[in-house]
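Ticket #4471: structure export looks truncated?
Reporter: QA, pipeline team
Priority: medium

Steps to reproduce: submit the single chain below to the structure queue and open the exported record.
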Amino acid sequence: MKLRYKNISMIVAMDKTGSIGDGNDMPWGRDMPNDLRYFKNRTLGHSVVMGRKTYESIGKALPGRKNFVLTSNPEALSNDDSIIPISHHAEVLKYALRHPDEKIIIIGGASVYDLFADNVTTIYMTLVNAHYNSETKINIPLSGFNLEQGDMIHREGDLYPSQYNVYHWRD
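Actual output as written to the record:
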């Protein structure tokens, strides 16, 4: 059994098929501005962990957050003082133990979600009411989590209706 960390959570937006990415962007592009605001509100002031491809697709460190970037070649990112390049997810787990009051949020991509799936205690999941045939899909195991379900709402400005769900690990 893997160790769950009370201060590690993940945030993800996906469509009904588990699609999260297409060509280094979200399948729906920037057509879901309310989800982008939700992401910002949930992550601002906290540490975020992302893979190198996610970092490159964003194009910069996210302001107002400590940015950990997981990469097989941390030296290639060492010239960017706005991020903390790391080579193994265990470095984040050790950091979480040393800083138990600091909230750490896994923000993707697919391989990073997979690495931390057994360590998170909270999952913030936006379900976009659409079907995409995208190249990057995930399947987050939710067994052992309790669901706080939100309503499927078509918010003004969004291309599709979406549902914000929060899952909490059962202790």
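Status: closed, not a bug. The export was complete when the record was re-opened. Leaving a note from the reviewer for reference: The first helix runs from residue 33 to 43.
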